[in-house]
Amino acid sequence: VVAVGNTVQYTISVKNTSLTKSIDSVTLNDTLPDGLSYVNDSLTIDGTDSTDPITAINLNTIAPNTTSTIKFTANVNSNPTTGDKYTNSATLSYTFKSPDNTDLSSSVSATNNIYSNSIVITPTISISDKSSNEIDHVVAVGNTVQYTISVKNTSLTESIDSVTLNDTLPDGLSYVANSLTIDGTDSTDPITAINLNTIAPNTTSTIKFTANVNSNPTTGDKYTNSATLSYTFKSPDNTDLSSSVSATNNIYSNSIVITPNISISANPNIVNINDIVTYSITISNDTSTIIENPVLTDTLPSGLTYKANSLTVNGTESTDFLETGVTLPNIDLTNPVTVEFKATVVSTPSLGIEYINNVNLDYDFNSIAGTLSNKISANNTIHSNAIIIKPNIILNSSKRSVSIGDYVKFTLLVENNNSTTIENPIVTFKVSNGLAFIPNSLNINGSNSSESIENDIFLANISPNKTSTVIFQCRVNSLPPDGIQYLSLATIKYNFQSPGGQLTNILNSNNNIIFTNSTIINPLIFKHITYITSKNNPLIENIDMLNLTRSPIIYSLNTYPLNGYASISENGTLIYTPKIDFIGKDTFSLLLSNKKLGSITSTITVIIKSSSDFKYNLC
């Protein structure tokens, strides 16, 4: 089979079949068909160049039982003038001796047909891939890739026969056993010799199989899969002709993927209902390949709502919507993009104590595989304030009223009623002006310390259900700033482990109030009372102790406890019953009324412990 522009070498073999006599005056006349032309100086006779024209090739004498071989080349200049074939005719003229030694003449002829490539049936073969990777035509070690090879017989009238497909996987990929199907039917053929038999006219055969990605490409970044289809078909004169076609498919290592960096921060990261959270999302690109057409989507968790008109991109207000996509500028090596917005905390998390904000970035980038698309994700977790582990911090004093020159002993109790250790606790005391710390009076958990409360006090970790105790003494050197009361408190800073990692918190103790002995107390200045009781143990207290003058006070409940039940008589008898098996802290308030002095609310805090001892602290 030839096409215009091809060359064809003809070989003509002439054998003298006589075993005893020569043939003489042998001349070969080769007539090329229209469309072919002789290539000058290409003629050889028995390997020797000849300048004879191919229409009169002089072979002289051919000895008995000897063969002479003639070769020459022709150019294919045009299609056949008729039909699909080029017929080359050769006539051999010669003489030979008769038995009576008379010279006799004779000739023999032969023809050869070659065909225009218009008769060739050339099926189409294509290879497509689908990998388990999220990016089309890209794979990573451990992925799988399914190859689909489509073979179509393009002839509308003739079948192609003896069809065999040979697929050669590249290094780094291996065939998954028993994954081969031919037109949907399982096959046990090896992929290097897939038998497709006959493909009917205008029909497609589909071959599928799966390969594992075992290692990176041996060279470069791509895996090239090659498939060759071998087949036969009939010529117009019913001759079996053979041909083959090939195709390749390239997939690429994920080393070509450009992945930007996404960082998300939130402030604050521990929140209460009605807090405003500011999110800042920074996307940077540390490669020389531009991140194109980036679109950011952000799905806020249940419990948070977007604060209208708070979205900015690189400081410029954006009217895009977080849920449907925020269009960003292209991102290159020197131009990161920052997206900021605010969200309002409207409810507790739908599950647990975490608000998880999920961010997706869709983008394009150019690669050796062309323009590829990718999506990456990131998230940020903030926590509801329920995550905070809070110890009970109670600052007591040995006296409720003092005179100048008196000594007062302070006791700080840090009670860890949680199941998590209080780590690295640091206590800071703020003692009222007029009170002076007595050096060497500090005692921590039963051990004397030379430290001063004017500095931070470092405590050992406090295990669950354990208490740390700090005791020190002060001398009353002068009147308090307001001339009435000495106000002191303690602050503790500590760490604790949470689902979100190690967190830090700061808590204040109650305000400890000591009055001067010369002060006339307004009965309505007391605002906070703390009691400690035990689990399932009712608390009965007489609040009359607040009435430090003869002016009568009327008591009533102002707010109600969440974890127990409370009542109070008009003359100040308080009854509080915790809920069954509740351990922790409960808070409610009382309304204290006086005809002359008006009214004020007093907050009651009840700490319910598992132990049976309890006490109260007026502060």
UniProtKB/TrEMBL annotation:
Q: Output the InterPro entries linked to this UniProt entry.
A: Adhesion_dom_sf (IPR008966), Chlamydia_OmcB (IPR051172), DUF11_rpt (IPR047589), Fim_isopep_form_D2_dom (IPR026466), OmcB-like_DUF11 (IPR001434)
Q: Which Gene3D superfamilies match?
A: 2.60.40.3440, 2.60.40.740
Pfam families, per this entry?
Big_9, DUF11
DUF11 domain residues:
2-108, 138-245, 262-361
Q: What is this protein called?
A: DUF11 domain-containing protein
